[in-house]
Specification:
167 residues, single chain, 7 helices, mainly alpha, 0% strand
Length: 167
């Protein structure tokens, strides 16, 4: 029987050592592990990109070219002027006017009825965006109501006496 006391003492000592080590480890992790920031919401960027694409589509070819050379290609006005074959000052004026036209076009596209081009794009993408979600809610409610009215007991085909929870 004394050997049983020795085994029990060793088991308790191992447990205590493990708890102390775990406490020290968690304290060390709290000091060194930074808290990960929440994932950013990309929805606004997607909508802004759609508005920008639509606004660029309304501009002339010359305006789009000036904006793309500076904005997307990263050229300065002198380099872009060489590309299009005009003076740097003429290109700067062209770029300024293109930016003003883009700003006006962006304001128009953002003020349009929300079910305009964004709704069309949502349909092209298979109905995964905002409009399909709100319209889908109505469909879901209609399906639930149909299921409720058509629900029958599996054994005797009688209507249920109590509705399942969640309906």
């Amino acid at each position: 029987m004394p050997w049983l006391y020795g085994v029990a003492r060793n088991v308790l000592a191992n447990e205590q050592r493990g708890l102390r080590r775990g406490g020290r480890l968690s304290a060390r992790l709290r000091r060194t592990t930074p808290v990960a920031p929440a994932a950013p919401d990309h929805a606004e960027g997607v909508v802004t990109g759609l508005h920008l694409r639509e606004a660029l589509g309304t501009l002339s070819e010359r305006d789009r070219e000036a904006l793309q050379l500076v904005g997307w290609e990263g050229l300065d006005t002198q380099q872009a002027a060489r590309v299009v074959g005009c003076s740097a000052r003429a290109f700067a004026v062209r770029l300024h006017r293109a930016r003003r036209r883009l700003e006006s076009a962006l304001e128009r596209t953002e003020q349009e009825e929300p079910r305009g081009r964004l709704h069309e794009l949502d349909g092209e993408l298979g109905g995964v965006g905002y409009w399909s979600a709100t319209e889908g809610e109505a469909d879901m409610r209609a399906r639930e109501e149909t299921a409720r009215t058509e629900a029958r007991c599996v054994n005797c085909s009688a209507p249920p006496t109590r509705w399942p929870t969640g309906w």
